[in-house]
User: Fold this.
Amino acid sequence: MDPFVSLDATAQAELVRRREATPLELVDAAIARIERHNPTLNAVVQTHFDQARERARGLLPTGPFTGVPFLLKDLLTAQEGHPLTHGSRFGKDHVPDQDSELVKRLRRSGLVVLGKTNTPEMGLLPTTESEFLGPCRNPWDTTRSPGGASGGAAAAVASGMVPFAHATDSGGSIRIPAAACGLFGLKPTRGRNPLGGDIADAYHWLITEHALTRSVRDSAALLDVTCGADAGTPYQAPAKARPYVQEVNTPPGRLRIRIALRNPMGATVHPECLAAVHGAARLLEDLGHFVDEGSLEVPGDDAVGQHFITVWTAGVVYGIDALAERIGRSPEASHFEPFTWALYQYGLDQGLSAYLLASTELQRYSRAALRHFEDVDAWLMPTLNEPAPRLGTFSAPPGEPMAPLLRAAAYASYCPLANTAGLPAMSVPLHWSSDGLPVGVQFMGRLGDEATLFRLAAQLEAACPWAGRRPAVFG
Assistant:
């Protein structure tokens, strides 16, 4: 019987502090779980087991997560001496020669990295099915997607391989897999965590990095470890008032929460996703919060989707060209999946003027979106338009390489607003469908106000616990 599989990272670290378990015992148990379930799920695509065991045997930094096993996503975040493929065969020979600032902070907290998790090519789709790394499967139903682009991280955490794992989010890639796999996923405020050193203004600051967790307190404690601007960053989040771990134990008070059900793409929302929002609203009212309905519309928001795509595809061009420069190889169509290459060509065709117009309009839209918080503490909405779809749902039909973009936009249309405006947002697992699939609900908070989200999430976790729910593939 594995004594650690049901413990979150905070509890595992406490065992090490009390000398009731050693880092090596935690690491060996996690490795055994990976070896047991990864052949089914394909969540972990690189393993560093020998190096992890060596680190666990040595003198680890004394931090909040000393000895706790962890996984990095195979996207954006550099780890010295280990391939960073971005889910693409084009990147298979890319081996960074130094850790990124985020990895340095994670290692200083005492974490032990066991390997890297699956991601779609260049992190572009809300599913994890790259041709290079192969499809990742959802532990709740292995015929379904775990979401993306942090699908490997979500499958690894939901199945109990590790208590939490690194994730990134440029349009929902933390919240999407959290909703699909029954996890807590917080996207921090823009600039809260470092993106350096190799990445500067990638994707016009749509990207943030954090983690997928089973408990709210793990997310808060990890953000305490990693947050803060790195040297030379052009953008910084507002300072936090105190450690986020203290917020988890602080009652949120009576909050004003507004429901936004209008779908930004005009897509039909699945009844289970609507039921999840309405159930969350009833729970919030039972907890004493004031809940009403409203709209997040701002003038010109009918064009914001196109502006987002212009900036986002410019980021695709940047990502591929930067990778090409690092590996000394020119990109060609044969190196990429048809969808990725189509986005790259689309981004090239937009031109500088279109990019500058789009980025300016997104800034205007961001300022307008902030005014929706003048009398509201948080907005409640679906995380996704439907429960986890079948694998293959986002495949490109022959001759239609851009088709997955429309399908992806309809699936996750509630997510990009938080990236566009730089706002913190979280998916909370409060609902399960009639056929046993997790369905997350999304809360979006004020700029810089992760504190309120953590207080609210911890209250919801206590009122409607989710950690005891177990997928078909677990432990």
Remarks:
- The domain at 9-463 is CATH 3.90.1300.10 (Amidase signature (AS) enzymes).
- Residues 338-370 form the longest helix (33 residues).
- The chain has one domain: 9-463.
